[in-house]
Design goal:
The complex is a heterodimer. Chain A is mainly α. Classes of the chains: A mainly alpha, B mainly alpha. Chains A and B meet through helix 1, helix 6, helix 7, helix 8 and helix 10 of A and helix 4, helix 5, helix 8, helix 9 and helix 10 of B.
């Protein structure tokens, strides 16, 4: 186990390194003067020089990279070229919206996917099972932004239950308002991600139903549902956790789009704005944090998988 | 299996039939829109703004009186363009990565496998935002982002397939009879991974359609003069509370196309896999 954990940790470090190099190089790939590009056509030579200085563009690429990544390791992601405030501080502030949004979306996805996925597997071949299966396929094909618009029309415009846009200025000092503001966005992401997750739960349940130990338990007098819950569920949990790890990426992508639709002051909306403003220092910091997060979640999921699956432990 | 046989198998599956019909409808709409739409999609007519569905504006008009059906028809062109462009790039890079990852020296192979595993963690949308930070707003940003992002998925699936075929008897025989590695790749290896490859391309195109809509909505994809379903959504969103029905149509067009391509991929996988009996099911696949 320790050996596996160390190997996997090494892979994570390599992953973070490669990701940081790719992000860095992509944002430096443009031929010509990056500083001029960022400053725009109406800039004075002094502004261009200031940006060149901030980005350390005079130095060779490996030195520039080392400067940046050295700062990141000390917790210094640089300062925004536009606002002049530290990138890390802005990230931490916007995370107060994006992290709760992501957690709520994941909860919604699970609440939809697990019961309906199991049900659709148990009703396989019957009308109910097919209906769940077909609708999950259809919902998984819906663009998340459009799903959001439809939910706004129903729950904000027609029923008037939830706000259509915005986040309270006082943030989490008004927990009720903040929660209400995040509810519709979280449901939007959760429904679309949940529809995808549902298909995995269904597939895992079908596999569990076919297992010998579930059949034996049923033969010993348990009902099919009891057998499935007692013996099938732990096995299903394994594959669901794996997929949930993969879906973190989907939720981040969903948050980028949905924060825009609902005007939420989160990391996603900040990233889109910074891309438009060509605030490269901020963009590279934001991308590193987001991809780093996906890589770390993958690492945790893999370790967790090892810990709870005795078969894998013995194999190692 | 002959070519006709697997097309027949594909058509026999209801999902396959649906997928084929969707692809034909979208491609035909895009083609027709090149020389005919009910109205000029960019024609502004303030007198007839915000018409509901009816005649002559079948799906109604938007806030500047543009015909929504015409906008959706010409938007299909952008969708087809982005889907094909992304598929070409994903295909070329994916096969190249898979070939390098399967056929080269051991250390190269394994580094590529690690590299592919890392790149898979990059969501397509983040790649697109990264490229856009440098190159600005363009459909090519979407095409390259999806192309590169999805090529890794193709490589991940095609690499083990290539390894498997590489060690089969007929490839060994071909090598013994004097075929060069390049000839071997072209004549024996690639044709044998074609089914897996085509399935991936179909799913990749679905990702491309979703990505184009999302990125154009965010203002990273299509420019304001280009017809795009995602851009149309962004424009109609401003009047969502007053004219909620209008956003229905572009959203349905996107969903219909993505569903068709997803189901086509599923059906292709079923039709080209002879080991699968009629009552078995494949595991679903995560496509981010």
């Amino acid at each position: 186990m320790t050996r596996y954990a160390l190997t996997r940790l090494a892979l994570l470090v390599v992953g973070l390194f490669v990701a940081s190099v790719l992000i860095f190089l992509t944002l430096r790939v443009l031929p010509g003067d990056v500083a001029q590009l960022i400053a725009g056509t109406n800039s004075t030579p002094a502004q261009v020089a200031a940006i060149r200085d901030e980005l350390n563009l005079g130095a060779p690429l490996p030195v520039q990279y080392a400067d940046w990544i050295g700062g990141v390791l000390r917790g210094d992601f640089g300062t925004s070229l536009i606002t002049g405030s530290p990138v890390l501080g802005e990230l931490a502030q916007k995370a107060q919206v994006t992290i709760p949004l992501g957690l709520m979306a994941m909860t919604v996805a699970l609440v939809i996917a697990v019961p309906l996925g199991v049900l659709s597997a148990m009703l396989r071949g019957r009308v109910g099972g097919t209906a769940i299966n077909v609708s999950s396929q259809a919902v998984a094909a819906v663009p998340v932004v459009w799903a959001g618009m439809m939910l706004v029309v129903v729950f904000a415009v027609w029923l008037g239950w939830l706000p259509a846009q915005g986040f309270p200025r006082a943030g989490w000092n008004q927990p009720g308002y903040a929660l209400r503001a995040l509810l519709l966005p979280a449901i939007t992401i959760g429904v679309v991600e949940g529809a995808m997750l549902l298909r995995f739960v269904r597939s895992a349940t079908l596999q569990a139903i076919g297992q010998d130990f579930v059949r034996t338990a049923a033969a010993k007098g348990l009902t099919r549902t009891q057998a499935l819950i007692r013996h099938g569920l732990p096995n299903m949990a394994l594959s669901v956790i794996t997929v949930l790890g993969l879906q973190v990426a989907g939720i981040i992508v969903g948050a980028v789009v949905i924060e825009q639709l609902f005007s939420l002051p989160g990391i996603g909306r900040m990233l889109v704005a910074d891309v438009g403003n060509r605030d490269l220092i901020k963009v590279q910091g934001e991308l590193l944090v987001l991809t780093g997060f996906v890589l770390v979640v993958g690492f945790v999921v893999d370790l967790f998988h090892r810990v709870i699956d005795p078969r894998q432990r013995e194999a190692a | 299996m002959s070519r006709g046989a697997w097309l027949r198998r594909l058509w026999r599956l209801s999902t396959g039939r649906f997928g084929i019909i969707v692809v034909i409808v979208i491609a035909a709409t895009a083609a027709v829109s090149l020389f005919w739409t009910p109205f000029d999609p960019q024609h502004v007519d303030i007198a007839s703004r915000w018409r509901g569905p009816g005649w002559p504006h079948v799906l109604g008009t938007d806030g500047s009186g543009r015909d929504i059906l015409s906008l959706i028809m010409s938007g299909a062109r952008t969708t087809v363009f982005v889907a094909i462009g992304s598929a070409v790039i994903a295909g070329v890079f994916g096969i190249a990565l898979a070939s390098l990852g399967a056929l080269t020296a051991r250390w190269v192979r394994e580094s590529i496998a690690v590299f592919v595993d890392i790149l898979i963690a990059f969501p397509v949308l983040l790649i697109a935002l990264m490229i856009s930070a440098i190159f600005g707003r363009s459909l090519w940003v979407v095409i390259w982002a999806v192309g590169i992002g999805f090529s890794v998925n193709i490589a991940r699936v095609a690499r083990p397939e290539l390894r498997r075929v590489l060690h089969s008897d007929f490839v060994l025989a071909a090598r013994a009879s004097g075929l060069t590695p390049a000839q071997n790749l072209y004549r024996h290896l690639l044709p044998n991974i074609a089914p897996v490859f085509i399935v991936q391309l179909s799913w990749g195109m679905a990702v491309a359609v979703l990505a184009e809509a999302g990125l154009s909505y965010l203002g990273v994809g299509a420019s304001v003069t280009e017809p795009s379903w995602g851009l149309l959504l962004a424009e109609l969103q401003q009047f969502l509370t007053v004219h909620p029905l209008s956003v229905l149509w572009p959203g349905l067009a996107i969903t219909f196309t993505v569903l068709g391509l997803n189901l086509l991929g599923d059906a292709l996988r079923e039709a080209t896999d002879p080991t699968l009996s009629r009552h078995e099911e494949h595991e679903p696949v995560v496509v981010a």
